[in-house]
Amino acid sequence: MRPTDVVNTPFNDGVFAINVPSLKFGMESTHDVGYEAKRLGIHHALIVVDPHLESSLVYDTVKEALDKESIDSATTTMVRVEPEDTMVLEAFQAIREKTIDGFISIGGGSTIDTAKMLNLLYSYPRDLLDYVNKPIGQGIGPSGPLKPHIAVPTTAGTGSESTSIAILDISAIKVKSGISHRYLRPEVAVIDPLNTLSLPPMVTASAGLDVLNHAIESFTAHPYTARIKVKDPANRPVYVGATPIGDIFAIQAVGWVHHFIRRAVAQPYDIEARYYMMLGASIAGIGFGHAGVHIPHAMGYPIAGMVRGWAPHDYKYGYALSPHGISTAIPAAYVFRNLANVDFDRFEQIARVLNLRGESTRQLADNFFEYYIDLLTTLGIPTTLKELGFTPQDVDNLVAGTLAQQRLLSLAPIQVTEGVLKRLFDQAIVGL
Ligand SMILES: [Fe+2]
Q1: Positive or negative, the Cα torsion across 237, 117, 325, 299?
Q2: Do 330 and 217 fall within a single domain?
Q3: Is 133 among the domain residues?
Q4: To which H or E segment does residue 377 belong?
Q5: Which residues are found with C-beta within 5 Å of the ion, ligand 1?
Q6: Which of 26, 102, 24 minimizes the C-alpha distance to 66?
Q7: What are phi and psi of 293, to 5 degrees?
Q8: Which of the two residues, 185 and 6, has the higher pLDDT score?
Q9: pLDDT value at position 254?
Q10: Exposed, middle or buried: residue 287 (CB in 10 Å: 0-12, 13-18, 19+)?
Q11: What is the DSSP string of 271-308?
Q12: CB neighbours (10 Å) of residue 195?
């Protein structure tokens, strides 16, 4: 805990919420989906499933579990990796006339986020942009709880099953934004490590790096007391910065990812590695559900939005794609090196979990950077943005796209100016 955590002045906000989602974890827990749906009073479920998983054991298991409880279900596969507003609206048009009293999502973060948005639009129909965070949208919250949503994650990554946010691309302005409200959090997540066994290595690596970044970014976000006191509790953001409770989950997740990510990527059927990666993803989600994430995620959004002519070899979608975890992991190496120089205390705590030493701030920052680059190299992930096709000519647009993510940048432990971002992108493009 930092001394600032207990600072209480007339100007600082000294309040945070402890949000622990309802998670059901364990091997073969997928069979419990029927029981959970019945418990939540669902009779007509809409299953939102990644198109790649429509013929899969996890989908069949969920269907069987629902049948066993005599619960009707319809299915939509109108899900895209990195969902776009237009696609979400199209999917909504296709389901809006159906009778639905509960949602079940099966897939990674994009699928779970799509289900959250469909649930929101179905429960309280209005213009999608009204719900999108300010300044891009109106930031209006739903007028009451949504239909129950059971999330069945199939990647150990985004932690979307634990969070109250959905991320989407706003196609008209080519910017990523989010919808965040506590009612968006799934009622329960059924987390079965066996559902990740068939994930290809690059998907495992990208999702696993996302977990690591969630954990490190939330642990190093500014303390929650750094925010100005709010007059109305309704105006307190969902993500408030690092809290003593969020920290517990974040630091434990760092340890599990550190120990198991290489094994999960190299040996897909290493059950122990899959188990702890899945558990790590879920608790990192709890950690950043308190604190939020900051600079690497903010930089990752324009990287994902601007990538041309590159995709990792395990992602066979037929279009250029820098998956979320890779888009955030490359800049993270450079961001953490710079932040370790200004927040020795926090990075030293993480370094201890990673078995790194650093007597001086400079040495700690260098060791941290080396660790991160070595991890990316071992996992077969590029270590510079040059390898994704970016050039120094892209820096201005990348910086502008990052500055649009003020909700994230405001959680950083430093003031993030245009100059700071320019330097970080210069480094991330060509390397150090
Ligand atoms: Fe993420």
Answers
A1: negative
A2: yes
A3: yes
A4: helix 361-379
A5: 210
A6: 102
A7: -120, 170
A8: 185
A9: 98
A10: buried
A11: HHHHHHHHHHHHHHHHHHHHH---HHHHHHHHHHHH--
A12: 28
Residue 100's alpha-carbon distances to 61, 70, 122, 232, 236, in angstroms, are 20, 15, 9, 35, 32
Cα 68 to ligand 1 centroid, rounded to whole Å: 35
Residues 246 and 393 in one domain: yes
3-state secondary structure 27-74: CCHHHHHHHHHHHCCCCEEEEEECHHHCCCHHHHHHHHHHHHCCCEEE
Q: Which amino acid is at 257?
A: V
Distance 72 CA to ligand 1 centre (A): 33
pLDDT at 329: 97
Task: Please write the tens of the pLDDT for every residue from 31-88.
Answer: 999 999 999 999 999 999 999 899 999 999 999 999 999 999 999 999 988 899 999 9
Ligand 1 midpoint to CA 214 (Å): 6
Ligand 1 mean position to 206 CA, how many Å? Answer: 10
**pLDDT surpassing 80 at residue 354:** yes
- Please give the distance, rounded to the nearest whole angstrom, from the Cα atom of residue 20 to the centre of ligand 1: 18
Q: Is the pLDDT of residue 175 over 90?
A: no
d(CA 322, CA 301) in angstroms, rounded, equals 10
* Range scoring the smallest mean pLDDT among 11-20, 104-113, 144-153: 11-20
Query: What gap in Å lies between CA 239 and CA 73, rounded to an integer?
Result: 34
Structural domain containing residue 182: 28-191
Distance 41 CA to ligand 1 centre (A): 31
Dump pLDDT digits (tens) for 272-299: 999 999 999 999 999 988 899 999 999 9
Q: Which amino acid is at 301?
A: Y
6 in a domain, yes or no?
no
Token duo for residue 61: 């298991």
For the chain, the domain total comes to 2
Q: Is 344 exposed, middle or buried (0-12, 13-18, 19+ CB in 10 A)?
A: middle
The number of residues making up the chain comes to: 432
Residue 309 pLDDT greater than 80, yes or no? yes
Arithmetic mean of pLDDT over the chain: 93
Question: Which pairing describes strands 72-76 and 102-107: parallel, antiparallel, or unpaired?
Answer: unpaired
Q: Check whether residue 248 and residue 344 sit in a common domain.
A: yes
Where a domain ends, among 141, 166, 191?
191
CA of residue 141 to ligand 1 center, whole Å: 22
**What's the half-sphere exposure (Cβ side, CA atoms, 13 Å) at 369?**
19
The pair of structure tokens assigned to 210 is 């996302």
